[in-house]
Write a structure and sequence with these properties.
globular, three-stranded antiparallel beta sheet
């Protein structure tokens, strides 16, 4: 559907600014590029492994889904999806 180049660009943008002002903190917590919306929906990717969408309307002060962030963080930890930590087997 999309070229590898387009996917690389989209994932890079998701990594740097997909979660708005929470992008850095989110990436440290999950290791997964993501895109959020003010509807409470977040889409996260584990390149070459999976894509995950979560929805929960309660938002934090920065407009991110409170429960969605928790679910994605726990999935990342439990499945070893954090790109940096998975590389180190931490």
């Amino acid at each position: 559907m999309l070229s590898k180049r387009t996917v690389a660009i989209v994932v890079s943008i998701m990594t740097t600014c997909g979660m708005y002002n929470e992008s850095g903190n989110y990436l440290v917590a999950t290791g997964m590029p993501a895109k959020s919306g003010v509807s409470g929906v977040s889409v996260s990717v584990v390149p070459g492994v999976a894509g995950v969408a979560v929805a929960s309307p309660r938002l934090n002060e920065k407009g991110g889904s409170v429960r969605g962030h928790l679910v994605l963080r726990e999935l990342s930890r439990n499945l070893g999806w954090h790109f940096a930590l998975a590389a180190e087997n931490v």
